[in-house]
Amino acid sequence: MESDTLSNSEKHTEQKSSRYRGLDSWSDTEVLESLWASQAKALASVQSAIPFLEQAALEIVARLKQSGRLFYIGAGASGHLAIQDGLELHPTYGWPLEKTVLMVAGGAEALLYSMGGVEDDRSLPVKELKEKNLSSGDVVIAVAASGSTPYTLAAVEYAQSIGALVVSIANNPEAPLFRFSNYKVFLGTGAEVVAGSTRMAAGTAQKIALNMLSTLVMTKLGHVHDGLMVSMTISNEKLIKRAVSMVQEITGVTAFMATQALSEAENNIKLACLIALGHSKQKAEQVLGQNGWILRQAIETLETLKK
Predict the structure, then answer these.
(1) Distance CA 201, CA 40 (A)
(2) Domain count, the chain
(3) CA 34: distance to chain centroid?
(4) Are 50 and 178 in contact (CB under 8 A)?
(5) 194-211: per-residue pLDDT in tens?
(6) What is the pTM of this model?
(7) Is residue 293 classed as helix, strand or coil in its secondary structure?
(8) What is the span of the domain harbouring residue 257?
(9) For 88-107, what is each residue's pLDDT tens digit?
(10) Which helix (H) or strand (E) holds 208?
């Protein structure tokens, strides 16, 4: 039964379900099976959002190609998931740190401690967005289970007012966030097993959607080749070995040749691949630059020039 005190935008994520009445008296197996079923439903909920994620990705890519930045914004559990996705872009895809802006209600401290009160302050995100010079060329990805969190809502209102691209992810079809968004990603996870605990099913669906969106964006920007992270930041021995393996797989050269090519390319995997294929570093850099640093296009260009 839903509480009469909940707003329409909160009911889908905050409501109680009679299905779980007496949960605390169930067997351990029954509790776990119910949680599993809820998680499975969360996964399934993302499928209907695929067309909207695809449309959003196309415009995000267009903005980022024109020097736009990616802003991730949220509060509480949703904010943590947004921040996690944004943090992974640099090590995984080499996405420039200065082109990712991470905002969570309460700042970095909120990632370690619960700071629920700050998410009600509408002035904080606007002030921060102004300090970070959010512009019409930037992209804002906002995440909120209810879609009504004051901190996140104020951020998207301001972002839309100045013409930034706004993509909102929420678990309520009537999310207020959607009124101020260019792209609306609705994830219909419904009531939680533990009422209102949106870190669970809602959070699972949000994480999947965020992963899918950012992966498609980075792939379209040329940071993935044959399912390989060809723009990753090489920061340890494990990643050096992975980079050598990538160059080998893409070019067919020996491990020794791949290692040499990476050394000459200063650990730039795309550049190393072209060097391993027999091209000079200067020529490889030139052709990659002409092709937006998209490896497949660069390889095709060089093969055409051989003919």
Answers:
(1) 8
(2) 2
(3) 28
(4) no
(5) 887 788 899 999 999 999
(6) 0.90
(7) coil
(8) 237-306
(9) 999 999 999 999 999 998 87
(10) helix 201-220
